[in-house]
Structures are given as structure tokens and as C-alpha cells.
Amino acid sequence: MKDFFQVVHSRASVRSFLPDALRDTEIDALLRAAMAAPSAVNMQPWEFVVVVEKNTREQLAAALPYAKMAAEAPAVFIVCGVPARACEKSADFAVLDASIACENLLLAATALGLGGVWTALFPDKSRIEDVRRILGIPKDVIPLACVPIGRPAGPVKPKDKYNPEYIHKERW
Amino acid sequence: MKDFFQVVHSRASVRSFLPDALRDTEIDALLRAAMAAPSAVNMQPWEFVVVVEKNTREQLAAALPYAKMAAEAPAVFIVCGVPARACEKSADFAVLDASIACENLLLAATALGLGGVWTALFPDKSRIEDVRRILGIPKDVIPLACVPIGRPAGPVKPKDKYNPEYIHKERW
């Protein structure tokens, strides 16, 4: 049992990993948490590519300047938004809803004692195209984030990001 | 103590509320969870307007067709993205990052025994303008979501949204 607030406040980006493979039960728990996210009009306009094969992870790492750790992480999750299935068939909603699912996935990784990092594909057109090509993702699907996940190789150090200046009472 | 996975899988949209006010400690815990979210290059391009006053909540409810429950919820959180402070000053990143913070806020509400619902402002231009006008939000800030929060008036019924068809192994 992992306390919710402890998970939220201990999550931090993890960029180096032990070589251990993820268990199937862990991959399943991550994806189930992701798909439990809310979405506009409950359209669930998300899909996921789970990459374990080293050769494919290396191709991703080679193509993506901020996802070099995809080569070493035991699993890489590509979180995609699907405009054709989104509220009003909107790419905006597809991307928002996939983002929410991606956050659930990252939090779930923390809860499992794993770690990961959101490396952005969207809105960078060339990264989106590269990932579509490497993984055979259709043109009308938006790969939003490349998320390497594994067991952290070292201590995970969350930042305290609380900032009272970002809170407005009653009006801006 | 609330188990992370139990929270994720028991979260559901809550649209009717008991009249009890939120405690200051609850509002604080919700905002701290929201601000613990990751953001592109850690820019934290989010701000929050917390509306408790009934008159303002009624104005929001009157202006927003899908947020009628703002009139009855004891508190309404307006989650905003701030492009000027986002990675590459990108509105896309501001909206994504604010979405992630908003999901943390909704999950934290569930963990506290509260409930809420994400009612979309972005990408609807007229709702965004209405909320800017009512709350005095600057033109260069994007109010993303209007989130009424309170104690659920009835049982909360989560949907099982797991769909194995949305999972691709190794490639699409």
C-alpha cells in the first residue's frame, strides 16, 4: 500500500535505470492507471505503444535528443492522442486527455517503486514524425510523449515546487 | 492513508455536492498536489484561482453551460496555463502542463474524500473569454478548466475504462 500524497510528492523525473526488466504485472498496472484517467466526454482518445525490444529503444534514443535514456530503460511507453476519437474530433482534446493519462502512468510508476520521465514529442513536428516512422504509428495519431520507465539506478530527489504566488483567491 | 491505486481507480467525476465548505487544509493539500506535477523543463507554467464566494460561483455557472454545478459546489478551482512562463513560451506546453496539474488536483480530491469534475474551458474561445472577464484573468493567461470541488452528495461510481485494444506491443 502506497499513500497517495506520498506518491504525488515523491514523484520526480528518473533518467537512469537498473537493467531489470519490468514485470508484466507492472506494465499492466501502469496501463490500467493511465486508462483510469478522465477524458473529455469520456472519449478515452488515447493509445499506448510499449517498447521493450532493445533495438527499437535504441532507434528511439538515436532519433530523440531528450530521450537518450530510452536505450537503457527496460521499457519505453509511447503515449498517443487519437483526435478521431476525441471530443469534437479535436486534436486539442486528444492531446490534453493523453496528457492526463500520461501523468497517471508516471504517478503509478512511482507507486510501484519504478521511475520514469516524460520526454516531450508533441508539439515538436520532427520528433512526432520520427516516432511515427520508427513505430508505424498512423499519421492521424499524435505520439505525445516518450516515457522511459524502469527501476531507478539511484536516489530519487523530488523538488518542492509549491509556490503561493501561483494561487489567487476569489479572482486573479 | 489512502492507497495510490485505490485513489486512481475510484476517481470519478462528481457533479453534486453537499453544502459543507472545504477546509483551508484541504484547499492547501489540493493545490500542493497540483503543483507537484511535472512540467516541460520544470517551468511550472500554471496558476490557480480558487473561488469560494457564492456570487462569483453563480456567475461562472451562468456563463458556462457544462459547469452549472459551480453554483452549488463549495469551491471552484480555475486551473490556468501561462504561456509566457512555459517551455519555449509555448501555449501548447502551458496547456499540457496545466492539464497535468489539474489531474493531480482531481486525484488529490479523491484521496481527501472529496470529488470534482473537470469542465473544459480550453479550447472553447467563448468560455475562455467569459472566465477571463468574470475573474479578471489577463489576456495572455489561458484558463484551461473550471473544476468544482466538494463533498460528494451521493455514491461515487467509477467506470472501468481499461481497454486492451488501446495497447500496442513493440510497435503500432
Which term fits the overall shape of chain A?
globular
Number of strands of chain A: 6
Oligomer: homodimer
Just give the CATH class of chain A: Alpha Beta
Task: Please identify, by name, the CATH architecture of chain A.
Answer: 3-Layer(aba) Sandwich
Order of helices and strands of chain A: HHEHEHEEHEE
Number of H/I helices of chain A = 5
- The domain count of chain A comes to 1
Briefly note the structural class of the backbone of chain A: alpha+beta
Mean pLDDT of chain A: 98
Helical residues, percent of chain A: 25-40%
CATH superfamily of chain A: NADH Oxidase
What is the CA-atom radius of gyration of chain A, in angstroms? 16 Å
What name does the CATH topology of chain A carry?
A: NADH Oxidase
Largest interface (C-beta under 8 Å): A-B, 68 and 67 residues
Question: Which SSEs are present, and which pair or pack?
Answer:
2 copies of one chain form a homodimer.
Chain A: H1 4-10, H2 24-35, E1 46-51, H3 54-63, E2 75-81, H4 91-111, E3 115-116, E4 119-120, H5 125-135, E5 142-150, E6 167-169
Antiparallel strand pairs in A: 1-2, 2-5, 3-5, 4-5
Brief summary:
With 172 residues, chain A is α+β, with helices and mostly antiparallel strands. The first copy, chain A, has helices at 4-10, 24-35, 54-63, 91-111, 125-135, and strands at residues 46-51, 75-81, 115-116, 119-120, 142-150, 167-169.
